[in-house]
Design brief:
By secondary structure, the chain is mostly beta strands. It has one domain. The protein is built from 2 helices and 10 strands. The strands form 3 sheets. It has a 4-stranded antiparallel β-sheet, with helices on one face. A 4-stranded antiparallel β-sheet has the order 7-8-9-10, with no helix packed on it. The chain has a two-stranded antiparallel sheet with strand order 1-4. The longest helix has 8 residues. The protein is globular and about 45 Å long.
Length: 157
């Protein structure tokens, strides 16, 4: 845990009490965590690293997968977004599949199949575009199913 970047460690520590209260030991890093740098990027182009984190990246010493969902593991997370006086924790409405860094920040998200029972075509994985605005990600719309246009392009959807 001590090797985690400070903002990621602060995010993780919020789950330590949950481990202890449920008799599962202390907070640990699970196999879902990777420090290969893919979760670190300067999203808002301010010269500081930002981090994409998910609760399932952590577990408890007696249950390393305590925070992994049963039907859809890791469906939601947070963007730890740098600012002059620290980091803001911005809710992520799913697993980020693409990112357009810089301002305005845009992401696309594919929601896990377990959360999409409304889909008539089982082979279609809808992707949704969001823009960071007023401290949260706001839905822009669904990306084109055929991928003909980049839904994160500056022109929008």
């Amino acid at each position: 845990m001590e090797k985690l970047p400070p903002p990621v460690l602060a995010f993780a520590q919020q789950f330590d009490k949950e481990c202890r209260d449920n008799g599962l030991g202390r907070l640990t890093v699970s196999e879902n965590y990777s420090d290969d740098g893919r979760g670190e990027v300067d999203v808002n182009a301010d010269g500081q690293k930002d981090y994409f984190v998910y609760k399932c990246m952590f577990g408890c010493s007696r249950d390393p997968f305590a925070f992994t969902g049963k039907s859809s593991p890791c469906p939601w997370g947070s963007l730890l977004l740098s600012k002059p006086e620290g980091y803001d924790q911005v809710f992520l409405p799913g697993r980020v599949s693409r990112l357009r860094a810089g301002l305005p920040v845009k992401i696309s998200i594919k929601r896990p199949r377990a959360l999409r029972d409304f889909c008539k075509d089982p082979n279609y994985d809808p992707e949704y575009a969001y823009q960071l605005k007023d401290g949260r990600f706001q839905l822009l719309g669904m990306c084109s199913p055929n991928g003909a246009t980049d839904c994160l392009a500056s022109s929008g959807l």
